[in-house]
Amino acid sequence: MDLKELISVARGEMPADLLLKNARIVNTFSGEIEQADVAVYGDKIAGVGDYDKAKEIIDLQGRFLAPGLINGHTHIESSMLHPARYAQAVVPRGTLAVVTDLHEIANVCGSEGIKFVTDLARKLPLDMLFMAPSCVPATHLETSGAQISSNEVKRILAHPKIIGLGEMMNFPGVISGDEEVLKKISASKGKIIDGHAPGLTGKELNAYLSAGILSDHESTTLEEGKEKLRRGMHLMIREGSSEKNLDALLPLVTDDTYKRCFFVVDDRSCSDLLWEGDIDAVVRKAIDRGLEPVRAIQMATINAAEYFRLYDRGGIGPGYIANLITITDLAELEIDMVFYRGKLVARQGKPLFSPPPLTLELRDTVRIKSPTAKSLKIPLPRWEGLGEGETSDEAYPVIEIVP
Amino acid sequence: MDLKELISVARGEMPADLLLKNARIVNTFSGEIEQADVAVYGDKIAGVGDYDKAKEIIDLQGRFLAPGLINGHTHIESSMLHPARYAQAVVPRGTLAVVTDLHEIANVCGSEGIKFVTDLARKLPLDMLFMAPSCVPATHLETSGAQISSNEVKRILAHPKIIGLGEMMNFPGVISGDEEVLKKISASKGKIIDGHAPGLTGKELNAYLSAGILSDHESTTLEEGKEKLRRGMHLMIREGSSEKNLDALLPLVTDDTYKRCFFVVDDRSCSDLLWEGDIDAVVRKAIDRGLEPVRAIQMATINAAEYFRLYDRGGIGPGYIANLITITDLAELEIDMVFYRGKLVARQGKPLFSPPPLTLELRDTVRIKSPTAKSLKIPLPRWEGLGEGETSDEAYPVIEIVP
Fold first, then answer.
1. Which of A253, B8, B37, B367 suits B321 as a labelling partner, its CA being 20 to 30 A distant?
2. Which residues from chain B sit within 8 angstroms of residue A204, using beta carbons?
3. What pLDDT is recorded for position B389?
4. Inter-chain contact A3–B211, Cβ cutoff 8 Å?
5. Residue B355: per-residue pLDDT
6. Does the residue A392 lie in any domain?
7. Does this complex have an ipTM over 0.90?
8. CA B375 to chain centroid
């Protein structure tokens, strides 16, 4: 990308590579819908206004044009898809940037697993941004395939695509000042540190945040979300396959707070991606629950971009990366065309790109013994959770009985 | 600062160094007023909530507590004060961070002038953050004491206190793709690049922004400010000694846009600093014109902090730098105590710190010949601006006649 050429296109002298005429722009900077043309040169937006000259012109005839959606927190492994298949699933949904904490693959394969995904990501029409896993294994009770120490975290953070430290699930470790945990945090100084602190409140929440943790995606109640916002956390509103927090947290999104809130999916299964969607599904649900569509799109674009310090994403402005989606019906968020860095990569829900050939790396890395009937048996007589006067015939350590 | 100790104070175990009890906090995260205590340890805020243990306790008895004010753009030289005297003037006004583009001193003394101020800044109870001057001299018509080339800009930007490239006044150079100008911009990649583009509109504005320029403090009309916001610029609303743009631009500050707007003074004289104030005067004026006080304070604190990527400033939250001001009357912004990094440095408008001894460096660096009556004469016969049929007795190249 030659800056002088980009400027010349913006000035209206050199022809754009792609000109999207007659767009109704979802202007995430000003919160308005604005009628204009968008001139794209290379992978960037050159200008927004009245443009004519271009190698390729698409007349949007008043369709809406929004920045590509950003999924602020997920573990792509939870989709159960290979990263290339994952891209084919989410890109037609308008997701053009995803921040992923690879702690599942790292749990099994360590740094080698992380390298596998970061290498592959370069070949996909989707900006994958990575957080260094902070808690591998998640607890010391886990039999994991790898451990990631503070030294390893430091090494991983040096990679340019690793933009911060992933969700610090070990909040008891932070609060108690565990040395190894604090070393991981110190190694991330100046970068983003994501939080994960279900139910944390009062002085313990203060202690957790004083270490420099910036966000949370684990709030499930209004009061919890409100306290976290007040203490300065950015609120990731999660709508995953199992955890769904939008209904509880949406009342927190006001004129005063919305800029510090954005959407994430955390764990979303491939069937949910297929039938409901990705971040687009969350935006649709938020609009359905009464959130103004432009604001819902701001939350799914520029708000996440600002939190993750992606200064050339989340908006349609000169100099921004040309990640764009066209929308037929704004309230229904019907996405038609998807442009990744200026190239059409999906249309009408179908990917227009082939994934790189699948390889056989990292296969057969999850090893468990075949279960037998015996391995599912709960040895009741040895279980010590019986109340006084109860016999082992009456008490079962279960979460719920499905009759 | 030991992180483990900070966490312990936040947890309520170790005593705080300073405890501000019964504050009415101007919560810039949530836009509310919140009743709470603030525990400070070293130069940081440890916790916000109910705290008791501290070496020193100040009962604020319900007075307001806000983050230190941030002046987003100024040339401190315009105050006509030595930097140490400047700090004595603005710190009692609540200014605890100032972003300054040293292009005046650089115009006279080059990099040596910049070094003089950056060295001195370390000794002052005021966070001075610097922008590398982009346009020294401001025009080729100027007889300046120094020139700052793109190579020199690159060298200056390597200094950790230099957070970006100062106002790019040479907008014709950007728009026309001037090589040396674009080199300065490329050298600033990944850092903040401030703009300065009076009256720029349409394709020329797009061209200017496509180069990566992020902000503007030169808007004087509503339409101009609106277009710049729409194109993605951050709007610095300027209230200097000569240029006053608040009345024209305040209608632009809405629920949708306020996060991208903040206050600057650009050039403010020492007498204005003394009699009216600094950023505090702008906040007062904005409140007087109808802006909600909490929002006015957000613009003077967290909005500027976010634009300048000062992630631990602009809010009262655990882990944030303890730059704090107490306010007796919110609507009048009557500032009483000023805490810089946890230490009381001003009270009731008076500085409680002595400036470092003044030195004799950089004296006698502005050299002009003594003017005579003759040097003020305009040699009319040689002036070529006469219209057809006019004689030199009738036409004068003046801006305004003061009778």
1. A253
2. 11
3. 59
4. yes
5. 83
6. no
7. yes
8. 37
| 3-state secondary structure labels for all residues of A152-199 | HHHHHHCCCCEEEEEEECCHHHHHCCCHHHHHHHHHCCCCEEEECCCC
In sequence order, the 6+-apart residues with CB closer than 8 A to the CB of B211 are A3, A6, A7, A319, B174, B182, B185, B193
- Return d(Cα A254, Cα B161) in angstroms, integer: 36
Q: Is B121 strand, coil or helix?
A: helix
Nearest CB among B3, B29, B231 relative to A211 is that of B3
Which tens digits make up the pLDDT trace of B63-101? 999 999 999 999 999 999 999 999 999 999 999 999 999
**DSSP letter string, B9-59:** HHTTSSPEEEEEEEEEEEETTTTEEEEEEEEEETTEEEEEE----EEEEEE
DSSP string computed for A294-325: HHHHHHTTHHHHHHTT-TTSSS-STTSB--EE
pLDDT of residue A139: 79
Instruction: State the pLDDT confidence band at B213, using cuts at 50, 70 and 90.
Output: very high
Number of domains chain A is built from = 1
Structural domain includes residue A159: yes
A·B CB contacts under 8 A: 172
Within-domain flag for A116 = yes
Q: Does A204 touch chain B (CB under 8 A)?
A: yes
Give me chain A's average pLDDT, please. 93
Query: Which of A30, A204, A209, A210 is most worth mutating to test chain B (most B CB atoms within 10 A of its CB)?
Result: A210
Task: Determine which of A113-122, B46-55, B228-237, B268-277 has the lowest per-residue pLDDT on average.
Answer: A113-122
Q: How far is A160 from chain B (nearest CA, A)?
A: 13
A interface mutation test: which of B206, B253, B313 has the most A CBs within 10 A? B206
Question: Are B209 and A10 in contact (CB < 8 Å)?
Answer: yes
Strand ordering across the sheet containing A162-168 = A69-74, A95-101, A127-132, A162-168, A192-195
Selection from B370, B368, B372 nearest residue B143 by Cα = B368
**Does A309 sit within 8 Å of B309, measured CB to CB?**
yes
Amino acid code (one letter) for A1: M
Nearest to A26 by CA among B226, B202, B230, B228: B230
Q: Which B residues, 295 through 334, put their C-beta within 8 Å of a C-beta on chain A?
A: 306, 309, 311-312, 315, 317-320
CB atoms B231 and A29 under 8 Å: yes
10 Å Cβ neighbour count for A104? Answer: 18
Domain that holds residue A248: 69-307
State the average pLDDT over residues A238-257: 97
A363 within domain boundaries: no
Instruction: Look up the CATH number of the domain holding residue B190.
Output: 3.20.20.140
Instruction: Determine the residue among A7, A189, A201 to mutate to test chain B binding: the one whose Cβ has the most chain B Cβ atoms within 10 Å.
Output: A7
Of residues B29, B45, B47, nearest to A229 (C-beta): B29
Q: Mean pLDDT throughout B255-265?
A: 98
